[in-house]
Amino acid sequence: MLYWIYLIRNLTRNIRRTLLTSAAVALPIVIFVLSTSVISALNSYLDNAAKQMRLIVTHKTSFINPLPSGYRYKIEALDPERKELTAVCGMHWLGGKVENDPRLLSTLAVDKDNLEACYPDYHFTQEEMDAWHRDRQAAILGPETAKQFGWKLGDRITITPSLPPYTPMEFHVISTAEHASDPVTSWIRLDYYFDALKEHGFHGDEWIGFFVIKCNSIAGLDHYRRAIDELFANYPDPTKTRDEKSFVNEFIAQQFNLPRNLAILASLTVFVAIMAAMNTMSMNIRDRINEVATMKSLGFSSRSVFVQILIESMMLCVSGGFVGALIPYGLFHWTPLGSMTIPVIQALDIPLLVCMKAVLIAVGIGILSALWPAWLGAKLNVVTALRYLE
Amino acid sequence: MFIGELQRYVTRLQNPNNVSFLIQKVCPMSLANISVHQVVKNYHKDRIEIPVLNGLDLTIPAGQFSVLMGPSGSGKSTLLHLIGGLDRPTSGTIQVGDFNLDRMSDSELTRWRSRHVGFIFQMYHLIPVLTAAENVELPLLLFSMSSHERKQRVATALQVVGLTDRMDHRPNQLSGGQEQRVAIARAIVTDPDVILADEPTGDLDAKTSEEILNLLNILNKEFGKTILLVTHDPRAAAHGQRILHLDKGILSQEKEAVCVT
């Protein structure tokens, strides 16, 4: 017990230094937890995307350039018997906002016929699909979007698209896609959107944002990825086809290669925390050379001195790590920040596992930062230390 | 045995009519003769070899209160550290009781030190974040004993040095003399054979010094502890049974002190 009392009091002998060091560990841990959570969310999304064997066809120049709507039939013609190429679904990004609400929506207008075939992983019910086909104003909401805006099944909602016709459009909520891998994006019918364009004098129905193609096998995925691009290679609007995971990865990479940069950031912050903790522990031990020398003169072995400094450093860093993990966890679980959406990742979840990993990293920081001062303490020559002090 | 003796001693201390026993000499109980044979100690600084002790021979019988005097740099503290196993001689042998220190490994020496030697330093070297009682308890963590037994030993050791009312005070709440008493309690709590005191009164006023030296006398006479005291102060030296003079690494003079009885 006395041993632990001694360790704890060592931490409280210079409160300011302890607090600053704890903060120096806590802040990088906050960044680590947030970055890792973002990476984890992305990976989870990408892993699911890879499993679904979907191809995304965009314009070769950039995915913001539209493709001719007629490409759909040419693509379908590549496998008229639907052996490998199950379905082709055209999509058009609309974005959108609700009146007097600054939050940007992620809304896609999609071909009504092939949505279910392209997204079997969403497990739509027959009732939902019937409503989807029956109602031109049907909207399938991302579950997080529905939660954030308080929308529920049967609600009539009004969204103003971020693209032409820029006028409020009314939709009927027919599903809140409980099994959606992308919990924020909502879907409306492309035919209803095109009608709205025509109604307001726009001619946009001959163009489409991109196509989603569902394949039956990995081999089919690979075959049609090449075949589609070859088919349109000499057209005025050549295509670029890749699997869904590569597409999302590419999209993210264009947004400053987020995962790689976050991973670098997380590593750097951990490194900074190690440096800060090592500096503090070194100063701490230097201030207490006489104590280390006294302990050794009393008969405490070099090993016990080493372990004592190591445990002390671990306690210091774990306290910082715990606070650092608790802050983002608390903020994203117990405050309105939890409903904040982030582009691509949508709703950021702070997994408990990441927090636990962060605390373990703090333990690692504690050990790494104390190795050098602990070794110095263990190797301290008692006679030299006592002579120096007296 | 030590605890029993201490408790009997403390009981007598608490009776004002028994003050006279303070100067009563009893048979030594310690078994640790100290034998230093042909000890040479050189230090190295910037590749220059600095001789400190040159073939020193010394025998201190068990239970003797010896005082080591000499000018600064004469090797007093070095000899004390060698006898206490904090340092190793360049050559020569040191025997304390049954233990030949130069044949022991570092870990054996550390373990031996915790059980057989009590150090008292000029600057006390108490742990500032621990209370007086916790400071005294610290060396007992190296022994396998119950918390109750540790507390009992700590209480007794603090009673011997007259600081039971300061048990829960931290070093910064104590005077220099009280701090040194705590350091003495810490030195005796493990019941060592040998107490090595390196200028324990060097930082204290005359009155407090006298109290500390009296305490050392009691430890020597009542409990037979072998004590080696390093000091510059002739008045402190007068408390020892034997005064050794060390100059330039050579034990140049020895004389028996007048034993006050």
- Tally of individual domains of chain A: 2
Number of helices of chain A: 14
The structure class of chain A reads alpha+beta
What CATH calls the topology of chain B is Rossmann fold
> Helicity level of chain B, as a percent range?
25-40%
Helix content of chain A: 55-70%
Q: Could you name the ranges of chain B where pLDDT drops below 50 across 5 or more consecutive residues?
A: 14-30
Task: Give structural notes.
The complex is a heterodimer of chains A (390) and B (261). Chain A has 390 residues and is α+β, with helices and mostly antiparallel strands. Chain A folds into 2 domains: 2-46 and 257-389, no CATH class; 66-236, no CATH class. Chain A is 56% helix and 14% strand. Chain A has helices spanning 2-12, 15-51, 71-76, 115-118, 126-134, 143-149, 190-199, 218-231, 244-254, 258-287, 289-298, 302-334, 352-379, 382-389, and strands at residues 54-59, 67-68, 85-93, 107-110, 138-140, 156-159, 169-175, 186-189, 207-208, 210-215, 239-243, 341-342, 346-347. Chain A has a 9-stranded mixed β-sheet with strand order 6-7-5-8-4-3-10-1-11, sandwiched between helices. In chain A, strands 2-9 form a two-stranded antiparallel sheet. In chain A, a hairpin with a 3-residue loop joins β12 (341-342) and β13 (346-347). In chain A, α2 packs antiparallel against α10. Chain A is elongated and about 90 Å long. The model of chain A has no long low-confidence stretch (mean pLDDT 87). With 261 residues, chain B is of the alpha/beta class. Chain B has helices at 2-13, 76-83, 106-116, 132-137, 147-160, 176-188, 206-223, 234-237, and strands spanning 34-45, 48-60, 65-69, 91-96, 99-100, 117-120, 194-198, 226-230, 242-247, 250-256. Chain B has a 6-stranded mixed β-sheet. In chain B, a hairpin with a 2-residue loop joins β4 (91-96) and β5 (99-100). Mean pLDDT of chain B is 84; it is low at 14-30. The chains are: A alpha+beta (390), B alpha/beta (261).
